[in-house]
Write a structure and sequence with these properties.
- This protein is an all-alpha fold.
- Among the domains are: 73 residues; 82 residues, Tetratricopeptide repeat domain (Serine Threonine Protein Phosphatase 5, Tetratricopeptide repeat, Alpha Horseshoe), CATH 1.25.40.
- It has 18 helices and two strands.
- It has a two-stranded antiparallel ribbon.
- A hairpin with a 4-residue loop joins strand 1 and strand 2.
- Helix 13 runs antiparallel to helix 14.
- The chain is globular.
Length: 324
C-alpha cells in the first residue's frame, strides 16, 4: 500500500506538470493502490505524462482498448525493452525510466541501489530529470548515505538546464539552511526561475519572500502577483495567503468578500488554517453573512485536521449554544 504522504506529493507534483508523478498516479489508479481502482483516472494521468514524452506512459496507453477502458499490459516486455535500450544503446531517457521503476517499485520489487545506478548513468549524460532524481536520492538517503552536498550538486546541474523542480528544491535548501549557509537572495533566485516556468509552489514561495522582504526588497504588490499566480493554479497556501493579504489591505484594497473567496478555495482543499479562518469569517460576518452554524462546521473541520484553535472555537460555540 502506498504511503499517504507519497501519494500527496505525487498528486501535488502531477498537478504542477511533473511527468513522472503523472505516470505514477496512473499506475496507482490502475492498481487501486491506496485509492479506488479507476481505469479512466489511470488513463487520464498516463495521457498527461505521455504528452510530455514519458515513454512508459505511452507504452501503457498503447496497450489500452480505450473504447472499453480495458488495460492489458505486458509489463515484462515493456520493462525488458526499456532495459535493453538503456543498457545496449546507453539511452539516457530509458536509463532514467528504469531508475524510476526501481525507485518506486513499479511492478517489480523496490530497489534503491538499482535505481541509483540507473539514475547515475543517465545523469552523467547530462539528462536533467535523472540529475534531479539523483539529487532526490542523495537528499533522502535512498540507496546511498544521505549527503546534502551531493544532492545540491545534482540539483544544481539539473537546475542550470532549466529543470523547474530542481530549481525549486535548490530554493528550499538555501531558504532553510539544509547543509548550506542560509541565503535568501540565492533562494529567491531559484524560486523565481521555477516560478517563471509556472511551478505553483515556487510562485507561492516567491510571494512569501516578497511579503517578508527575504532576499528581495519587501514589496506587497509583487507578493500579491506571485500568490495570485499560484492560487489560480489551485495551490491552497497561495489561495490562503492571497485572502489574508486582501483582509489586511497589503498590496491590495481591503476586501473581505475577496478574502472569503480565496480562503474558502483553500479551505475546501482541506487546508486547516483556511478552514479555521472560514470559521472566523462566518462567526464575525466578515465577507459573508454572520452564521454560527457555518462557523461551527468550519471550526470542526479545522479541528479534525489537527488545528487546536479550531477545536477551541468549536467548543466555545457549543457552550454558547447551550447557554442560549
Amino acid at each position: 500500500m502506498i504511503n499517504p504522504q507519497q501519494l500527496t506529493e505525487w498528486l501535488r507534483d502531477a498537478e504542477q506538470g511533473a511527468a513522472y508523478a503523472q505516470f505514477n498516479l496512473g499506475n496507482i489508479y490502475y492498481e487501486g493502490n491506496g485509492v479506488k481502482q479507476d481505469n479512466i483516472e489511470a488513463i487520464k494521468w498516463w495521457e498527461m505524462a505521455a504528452e510530455q514524452g514519458h515513454e512508459l506512459a505511452q507504452y501503457r496507453l498503447d496497450s489500452i482498448n480505450k473504447e472499453d477502458n480495458v488495460i492489458e499490459v505486458d509489463w515484462d516486455f515493456i520493462f525488458g525493452m526499456q532495459k535493453y535500450t538503456a543498457d545496449v544503446y546507453n539511452d539516457a531517457k530509458a536509463q532514467n525510466n528504469i531508475g524510476a521503476i526501481y525507485a518506486h517499485g513499479e511492478d517489480i520489487q523496490q530497489d534503491y541501489a538499482e535505481a541509483l545506478k540507473w539514475y547515475r548513468r543517465a545523469a552523467e549524460q547530462d539528462y536533467a530529470e535523472a540529475q534531479f532524481n539523483l539529487g532526490v536520492m542523495y537528499g533522502h538517503g535512498h540507496g546511498v548515505q544521505q549527503n546534502y552536498v551531493e544532492a545540491i550538486k545534482w540539483y544544481r546541474l539539473a537546475a542550470e538546464q532549466g529543470y523547474a523542480q530542481a530549481q525549486f528544491n535548490l530554493g528550499v535548501i538555501y531558504e532553510h539552511r539544509d547543509s548550506v549557509r542560509q541565503n535568501y537572495a540565492e533562494a529567491s533566485k531559484w524560486y523565481r526561475l521555477a516560478a517563471e516556468q509556472g511551478f505553483a509552489e515556487a510562485q507561492f514561495n516567491l510571494g512569501v519572500m516578497y511579503e517578508h522582504g527575504h532576499g528581495v526588497q519587501q514589496n506587497y504588490v509583487e507578493a500579491i502577483k506571485w500568490y495570485r499566480l499560484g492560487a489560480e493554479q489551485g495551490y491552497a497556501q497561495a489561495q490562503f495567503n492571497l485572502g489574508a493579504m486582501s483582509a489586511n489591505g497589503k498590496g491590495i484594497r481591503q476586501d473581505y468578500a475577496e478574502t472569503a473567496k480565496w480562503v474558502q478555495m483553500a479551505a475546501k482543499q482541506g487546508f486547516a488554517e483556511a478552514q479555521y479562518y472560514m470559521g472566523m469569517i462566518y462567526a464575525k460576518g466578515l465577507g459573508a453573512s454572520q452564521d454560527n452554524s457555518a462557523a461551527k462546521e468550519w471550526f470542526g473541520k479545522a479541528c479534525d485536521n489537527g488545528l487546536q484553535r479550531g477545536c477551541d472555537e468549536y467548543r466555545k460555540l457549543n457552550e454558547q449554544a447551550a447557554i442560549n
